[in-house]
UniProtKB/TrEMBL annotation:
GO biological process: antibiotic biosynthetic process; monocarboxylic acid biosynthetic process; proteolysis
Similarity comment: family membership: Belongs to the peptidase S33 family.
Organism of this sequence: Penicillium cinerascens
Gene3D superfamilies: alpha/beta hydrolase
GO MF assignments: peptidase activity
One protein family per Pfam: Abhydrolase_1
Tree of life domain: Eukaryota
Record key words, sorted: Hydrolase
Protein name: AB hydrolase-1 domain-containing protein
Keyword Nucleotide-binding: no
């Protein structure tokens, strides 16, 4: 990839409700002046960063789709707000949607051919919520291992525990078993692409602990009762939903997208976990082909 196909920077972001001038870090792969709608990628976590999704830059190489990555507020290279840890009233959906709106306006992504959005995991929550507002310029939506409601996630975890698929927390290797079998099934584990995300979340726990809480299995934070299910019928653009056969975003979490979004297609990748795009070469190739071909379709 040529150097002139990449650029990075920050856009100012006036953080709502507190008197702080913040910024959002972004990285662009491809030429925004091309005739193709740009793809804006929302990372998971909450609290990680964009790095583990950089392989989606292949969509520029293979399909000519420019890709815009960014770090959400409080994460990675964007403004951190450690003084807000535990402030559940601050860390709400509206904050992240305001940041996304600001990024789109600052980079003028609503202009010309418009843009697509891909949200992975936690980013899928925000992508779905944003799309329900029927934003100007949005062409297509991809929800990758996304979650429509916190409660459906808790239900999925409860069912797996009842079936004995998770070992007791007393065993020191329980989390390792969980990550290797459901989070990312790549060998060797963990793939290097995920390491920055782990680093970001361990160095600053503000976003993750306030939104989710200390346990990955029981949300006690500001998003405990979050749902976008009642709004999903308002998504007006063609939508691709995908997850993995062994995904932590179990089918229970995905069904509401399929049931309520008017123009939707759902694909489950056989043998895959939560990180479909980072697992076996065969699975990753399928992911990029499916996503690229979907985004290239005409409305």
């Amino acid at each position: 990839m040529a150097d002139n196909d990449q650029r990075e920077g920050t856009v100012p972001f006036k953080i709502p409700h507190i008197d702080i001038a913040g910024h959002t870090y972004y990285k662009i792969i491809g030429d925004l002046s091309s005739n193709s709608p740009r793809l804006v990628v929302l990372h998971g976590g909450p609290g990680s960063g964009h790095e583990y999704l950089l392989s989606f830059s292949r969509l520029w190489e293979q399909f000519g789709i420019p890709v815009v990555f960014y770090d959400q507020i409080g994460c990675a290279a964007s403004t951190h707000l450690p003084q807000t840890i535990g402030d559940k009233s601050f860390w709400q959906e509206s904050l992240f949607l305001a940041e996304l709106d600001n990024l789109l306006d600052s980079l003028q992504l609503r202009d010309g051919p418009g843009y697509h959005i891909l949200g992975h995991s936690w980013g899928g929550r925000m992508a779905a919520a944003f799309a329900t507002t029927q934003p100007q310029g949005l062409q297509r939506l991809v929800l990758a291992s996304g979650i429509a409601s916190t409660q459906t996630t808790l239900q999925a975890i409860d069912e797996e525990e009842q079936k004995g698929n998770f070992e007791s927390a007393r065993f020191k290797d329980a989390m390792d078993v969980f990550f290797r079998n459901y989070f990312c099934r790549a060998e060797p584990f963990p793939p290097k692409e995920i390491l920055p995300a782990f680093k970001h979340m361990s160095e600053d726990k503000t976003v993750r602990e306030t939104i989710s809480g200390p346990s990955p299995f029981n949300c006690t934070g500001s998003f405990r009762d979050w749902t976008c299910i009642p709004r999903l019928h308002q998504i007006a653009v063609p939508t691709l939903v995908y997850n993995g056969e062994f995904d932590t975003s179990h089918d229970i979490t995905t069904v509401p997208f399929f049931d309520h979004i008017p123009r939707v297609r759902w694909i489950t990748f056989s043998g895959a976990g939560h990180m479909c795009h980072l697992e076996s070469p065969e699975i990753t190739e399928k992911v990029f082909r499916v996503v690229g071909e979907f985004l290239m379709q005409q409305n």
